Amino acid sequence: MATILQSFQKNPVSMIDPSQLLRPEPAFIDKPLDAFRDYSVDDNDPIKERVRRTYYTMHTNVTVDLVKQKREKWLKFNHFKSTVKDALIKLNELVDESDPDTDLPNIVHAFQTAERIRQDHPDDDWFHLTGLIHDLGKVMAFYGEPQWCVVGDTFPVGCKWADSIVYGPESFKDNPDTYNPKYNTKYGMYKPHCGLDNLLISWSHDEYLYQFLLHNKSKLPEKALYMIRYHSLYPWHAGGDYRHLTNEKDEQILQWVLEFNKYDLYTKSEKVPDIEALWPYYEGLIEKYIPGVCEW
């Protein structure tokens, strides 16, 4: 019987967030391009233009009303039932339409992230599992959700668009919330320093997986849940925006998210983990923290 990895090699698939191609945040200005993929914009490059279209579609359609609709749809957790392991494997049947240049399946990235965390934090098994599952919310794409509403960077809705959002405020020119006085001011529908927990964030795999873990009574610690919930909120944790809305608790969350993200984004390498050999360890962690058949 072919191993899982052999089957991936015969049918290579991947799901790479298009946001990895362009990050305008100050935190990445001095980093070499080859360390962080390619953030340049080239009108003549069809792949980069496809990435741009993904974001412009996202930024045109993601409104306060749409986020509320997606939450209503997905937070019933009535779409399918599956173990976490089976969902991880299922995800690799999905090919990202904006995948730039790799044929490594998402599960390789998941294990690369988890194993690097395991190397640096050998005693924190909850952190290892967090690295493995952090992108698992992308299974929404199997149930009619367009990829612009699944992958990519996230941002608050209901207030003025931050300059550090990928492609900038100009990419929201066709979004009706841009012209709604309830939503287009500095604070919009929020109060000063109300905290991240009180912000409505653009719908994506982050919020879905966070809510999934709560719904299925995961035993992961709070810091793991927040790492997952906000790991794509780059305008906040890398761009430095929205500090007028965050509070003291969010400063602690920020440290957790930054610690996680250094493993998430840039652990891709030529070395492919021995997934077959690693599964027993991670199956043990799944059984410990998110056991059995879950509701998705």
TrEMBL record:
Record-listed substrate binding positions: R37, D96, E97, S98, K138, G152, D153, H231, S232
UniProt binding sites for Fe cation: H109, H134, D135, H205, H231, D264
Assigned GO CC terms: cytoplasm
Metal-binding keyword on record: yes
Protein keywords: Cytoplasm, Iron, Metal-binding, Oxidoreductase
Source organism, top-level taxon: Eukaryota
Note accompanying the cofactor annotation: Binds 2 iron ions per subunit.
Catalytic activity annotation: myo-inositol + O2 = D-glucuronate + H2O + H(+)
Cofactor entry: Fe cation
Family affiliation: Belongs to the myo-inositol oxygenase family.
Name listed for the protein in its UniProt record: Inositol oxygenase
Organism: Euphydryas editha (Edith's checkerspot)
